[in-house]
Amino acid sequence: MAARIAIMGTGAVGAYAGAHMAQAGEDVTFIDMWPENVEAMRANGLRVTHLRDVPEFVTPVTALHLTEVQKISRGQPFDIVFICTKSYDTEWAAVMMRQYLAPGGFMVSLQNCMNEATIAGVVGWGRTLGAIASSITVDLALPGHVKRASGKGGAAHTVYRVGEVHGRITDRAKEVARLCALSDSTLVTTNLWGERWSKLVTNAMANGLSACTGMISRDTLMNDALRRFGARLGSEAIRTGQALGYSLEEVHHMDPETIAKAGEGDPEALAEYDAHRLAEAAKGGGAHRPSMGQDMVKGRRTEIAFINGYIVDRAAEIGIETPANAALTRIVQQVERGELQPGPEHILNLRLN
């Protein structure tokens, strides 16, 4: 019997991955808190478009409002629940879906940030997996319509990395990888925590900068001061992750040590970092707003406390200073509250020791 799958939080990533599962004939139920999104999915299905190379498609889906989740108690429980909400909604989403999880079922964090521990606090570590969507560049542009600002990653870039918290390769990790691979390239990793922290570094370098400046990623890369501030953000995050014992993977297709040294002012590393990031921008990379930039434009709460703020908190626990990440966290929160208007001057005028 096919697994019953729930996508809890049908935002950009949940909609994108789940639409491909539904199109392939998997038994998927989409649950969301945006009424217009649910109604659009019911009426028209989920529409998926790409910037290039991939044909548009629309697939019919089963969609529920939050208020309708209680209906599930009259049917079969879910075998796999993908938690795809924003990080600040993780705990209540896991609590809500726990009662509709099959006895042998489990939850998968398909989110930004480090949310596995929060989910495990609800259902236990034995029922918790992680899945990372790396540089996926998706946006829920309209209700029921997810856009990807690229083609497929394919062999050039592995998008999904699926792993168990204990690092062993299991059949259920392979099954989650199979489901993710319906939408793009996927691997099963033995290094979930290293992959997770590496993705956190990637987000820390770009998301908050877009959110507080109002700029797309490419424009922040083309500005020397902003690009190098991004290196400093990454350097602090990398050094914190290393001190915490994580084995980091590539960040922006670079050795994380190069980024760390660039952020610390090493001339050779900085030259390599600049050349790599500028080449990325020249080839069309970064022609989009990362998720936090999208949230700011839409007037939604950001995940800054769970990305740069989380790095600051973890670094403080072990005596590492992270002034760039602390400053960015503060600025994004001020813009979010309406105390500042988005603009690059908030970063350009910083004076950090």
TrEMBL record:
Gene3D superfamilies: N-(1-d-carboxylethyl)-l-norvaline Dehydrogenase, domain 2 (1.10.1040.10), NAD(P)-binding Rossmann-like Domain (3.40.50.720). Residues 191-336 form the Ketopantoate reductase C-terminal domain. One of its GO terms (molecular function) is 2-dehydropantoate 2-reductase activity. It holds the Pfam family ApbA. InterPro entries: 6-PGluconate_DH-like_C_sf, 6PGD_dom2, ApbA, Ketopantoate_reductase, KPA_reductase, KPR_N, NAD(P)-bd_dom_sf. Pathway: Cofactor biosynthesis; (R)-pantothenate biosynthesis; (R)-pantoate from 3-methyl-2-oxobutanoate: step 2/2. Signal peptide: none annotated. Its EC number is 1.1.1.169. One of its GO terms (biological process) is pantothenate biosynthetic process. One of its GO terms (cellular component) is cytoplasm. The keyword rRNA processing does not apply. The keyword Oxidoreductase applies. Residues 5-150 form the Ketopantoate reductase N-terminal domain. Keywords: NADP, Oxidoreductase, Pantothenate biosynthesis. It catalyses: (R)-pantoate + NADP(+) = 2-dehydropantoate + NADPH + H(+). NCBIfam families: apbA_panE (TIGR00745). Belongs to the ketopantoate reductase family. This is 2-dehydropantoate 2-reductase.
